């Protein structure tokens, strides 16, 4: 995958479909067979009930979830924004799950039919007021083991605060620039951040996962 967007106008260049990793490997357990899926809870988060047949013939019901599936939304995106000076643009905002203000990377939902790279540039500006010179979608992951929601991961470079923040009604994002060392410290501090899995993947692709060795 190498989706990219260049400039604040968010023109995209698509290369491949971002297909999932191989579904089976030697020695894997036999996959379950999906028999049916019924809608359950439906608000911002949706929960569907799936019935599976196990390899031994037993059947089991399983809850799976994702956001706004009835609206055609099946994915979101997390952006690692890098400034020309090498700092990382984060946001501080209240999250209802942790019930506190936490550090987050900017991101949000990919609208139905929207390219993930375009969504990443849009969410970056809406939540932080920063635009970027380029944005590359470097991969995606399942939001959790029981999720049908795909989370794309992108790296935005050349980020500057020359855009316009446009928060949703109940968003309270405050942009904060952190050095890479400060960001890594946030990741290692329990309860300080959400979305740390995507953050680590983004750092890895950006070559920032390990601290640079300093000369003696």
What does this structure look like?
Helix content is 15%, strand content 38%. The relative contact order is 0.19. The strands form three sheets. It has a six-stranded mixed beta sheet with strand order 2-1-10-11-6-9, with helices on both faces. A three-stranded antiparallel beta sheet has the order 3-4-5, with no helix packed on it. It has 216 residues and is mainly beta. The chain is built from three helices and twelve strands, in the order E-E-E-E-E-E-E-E-E-H-E-E-E-H-H. The chain has two domains: 3-17 and 72-205, Nucleoside Triphosphate Pyrophosphohydrolase (Alpha-Beta Complex), CATH 3.90.79.10; 33-70.
Domain module count: 2
Overall outline: globular
Measured distance between first and last alpha carbons: 39 Å
Helix vs. strand class:
mainly beta
Beta-strand portion reads: 35-45%
CATH superfamily of the largest domain: Nucleoside Triphosphate Pyrophosphohydrolase
In angstroms, what is the radius of gyration? 19 Å
- Number of helices, where a helix is a run of at least 4 consecutive DSSP H or I residues: 3
CATH topology of the largest domain: Nucleoside Triphosphate Pyrophosphohydrolase
Neighbour order of strands in the largest sheet? 2-1-10-11-6-9
Low-confidence spans: 6-19
Q: Spell the H/E element sequence.
A: EEEEEEEEEHEEEHH
């Amino acid at each position: 995958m190498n989706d990219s967007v260049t400039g604040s106008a968010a023109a995209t260049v698509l290369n491949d479909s971002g297909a999932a990793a191989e579904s089976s490997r030697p020695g894997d357990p036999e996959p379950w067979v999906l028999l049916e899926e019924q809608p359950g809870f439906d608000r911002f988060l949706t929960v569907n009930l799936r019935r599976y047949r196990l390899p031994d013939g037993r059947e089991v019901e399983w809850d799976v979830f994702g956001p706004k599936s009835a609206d055609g939304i099946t994915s979101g995106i997390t952006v690692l924004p890098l400034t020309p000076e090498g700092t990382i643009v984060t946001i501080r905002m209240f999250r209802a799950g942790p019930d506190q203000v936490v550090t987050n990377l900017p991101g949000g939902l990919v609208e139905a039919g929207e390219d993930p790279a375009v969504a990443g540039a849009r969410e970056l500006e809406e939540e932080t007021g920063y635009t970027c010179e380029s944005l590359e979608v470097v991969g995606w992951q399942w939001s959790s083991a029981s999720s049908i929601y795909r989370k794309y991961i992108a790296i935005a470079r050349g980020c500057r605060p020359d855009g316009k923040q446009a928060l949703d009604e109940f968003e309270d994002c405050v942009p904060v620039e952190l050095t890479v060392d400060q960001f890594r410290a946030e990741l290692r501090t329990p309860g300080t951040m959400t979305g740390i899995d995507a953050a680590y993947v983004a750092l890895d692709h950006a070559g920032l996962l390990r601290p640079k060795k300093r000369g003696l």
